[in-house]
Amino acid sequence: MQTHNLGYPRIGSHRELKKASENYWAGNASAQELQQTAYELRLRHWKAQSEAGIELVPVNDFSLYDHVLDTLLTFGAIPERYQPLVGGAQPLDLYFAMARGHQRDGLDLRAMEMTKWFDTNYHYIVPEFHREQQFQLFRPKVLDELAEALQAGIKAKPVLLGPISFLLLGKAKNTDFNTLDLLPRLLPVYAQLLQRIADQGVTWVQLDEPILATDISPEAQIALVQAYNYLRKSVPGLKFLLANYFDCFGEALDTVLSLPVEALHLDLVRCPSQLDDLLEHPALGDQRILSLGVVDGRNVWRNDFAHSLTFLRKAVAKVGEARVWVAPSCSLLHSPIDLSLETKLDQELQQWLAFAQQKLEEVSTLAELASTAEPSRRALARLELNQQAHEARRRSTRIHNPEVKKRLEALKADHFRRQSAFDQRQSAQHKALKLPLFPTTTIGSFPQTPEIRALRANFKKGAISAAEYEAAMEEAIRESITWQEEVGMDVLVHGEFERNDMVEYFGELLEGFAFTQYGWVQSYGSRCVKPPIIYGDVWRSRDLSVRWSSFAQAQTQLPVKGMLTGPVTILQWSFVRDDQPRHQTAFQIACAINDEVKALEVAGIGVIQIDEPAFREGLPLRQKDRPAYLDWAVKAFRLSNSGVSDQTQIHTHMCYSEFNDIIEAIAAMDADVITIETSRSDMELLDAFVDFKYPNEIGPGVYDIHSPRIPSTDEMEALLLKALKFVPARNLWVNPDCGLKTRRWPETKEALIRMIAVAKALREKTAASVAS
Which of 129, 310, 504, 567 is deepest in the core (most CB within 10 A)? Predict the structure, then answer.
């Protein structure tokens, strides 16, 4: 029974790619050194997969920044503004300019828009297409990486983003048109690339079409048929594996089964019911291979072999062993790399877990156990250990807290709303805070310098005392408060210097969470996060942020925001227990955050931000599943801040969230102020406000913090003037897109000084206009 993998983490077990990339960006390493690190990682990852028993190893799943950006470069879909860098001496200049922006040598180029990859925390670069878009093979890196793999003796399976997903994940720029109209120009170039892949002697190519996990239109289904008929006729000698993941094929199943592809990949973790749909479908045929994604590529829990084997054996009984492949549910990009590195994780919890490398071993073991041949002793021993681990987890006493469960059972309607309507709260808050028109603030974090990181690391290692650590943190906070006052910021932040990550930090202080040393996952580019593992009931046994917020507020007469992460985001950005519904875990977290909100209020903090950047990310991919999610997600946020007084101003923040289609749910969260990412999309998100009048206050971000470039005051002012077409002046805030943790102080200070100047100028213009 064939085994294969859809994709492997790129960053390296010790984040080697992150470090090499950031050294290159800082000018401390050459392009050759960066590419050498990338090559060594690819080679290491291919060999690791082969040694784990994977027979077809993915190639071209590696990326220096993002695989969708790679696809743009492969097919030459380069926006016009980057043309000055095309053909330059350093090819990486163009690549990273598209990803991060470029401000050098007289060129000032904005980065391309970035948004979430379906319902994950991975961010992809959004393709920009125009009506006259042309395609060509520009930089088809897949060919170079395939040659590397073949030379290393790897049985390679090249991976490409399919043409329909590529076009539908992009946006039409300048004029309104359907990006699928570009398909006739794109397909000949796809076919050219596929033929060059076939010429290298490989048998299989994996074409990812994750757009099939969404509610695609009949028009898109027609395009899908046209595309794959064209590619099959153009490249008859190559076998196609069509991969969909994150949900079922849904209403497109009949269309998919009509395609001339030799194999279909099914995500049986997210949609277990589709196996029966396929096995009983008359169009399945007697040759088509089924790749069964039975090992969860997005969570860290050990696979339940007994459960997975029911799927595999059912498929084998129906279509035969030769037509069943075993795989993870999706790319392992979303999983940490290697559990064996976690030497500090307690043994009980460790036996419940599997990271990317262990998941591949699970794939190979399941293939052996499901085969009609006699399994090896090793496979049988792994089966026995698997059964023991699942039984131990079911019996564990560390998972459940009866008091937490009682609290959830006692929740009533009043626990999910503020005391008064927004109009009353707004009046009370304006009197209490006395803020000017267009108040300025930041999202929360300030640059995490090497010195700050070293300070935290030394404290964690015991190299410095708690008193030394706290004194240094107080000094950093005091300096940031003083600087914000000097430049004229209206609502201050303490800077979050004590925090490693906005979810990990709170998870370390809450009960029911566990943490890894090397469980890093890529979020975007070189940005990696280490998601906590929620293994049991969650509750708050101590203060989470009161210490530092209170200290910051004591340094100034201006309001300082208390900074918390919201329940939905903590849920989404953690590896969540799979033994109870997700909404129950979200409500447990919300209750814990509510306790902290009330403690901050008692401590004199009058502005409290509860960040929910992952709210949109958790939205199910299909419309029919969304109302249930939105209902409990809104309730979880409201539960987190109910019970505070009217004059306590509750903020929330969302970034890289396409939420035009859920704007009513965003309003239902009833935050007093919401700050959102809008600068990369040129305030495009505010189009939702044309038909829906958002009732509360809002701060659409005026500059992109994920790029090192510093926007001009004219650029920021233009964005604010655009926002004023949708948002009343009395409700408009001025702020960056997101937290400033990843930036450096010089660019941060200059950008914020310009931002504040724009807000002040706009106040003067508005006052003059009113006076006249």
Answer: 567
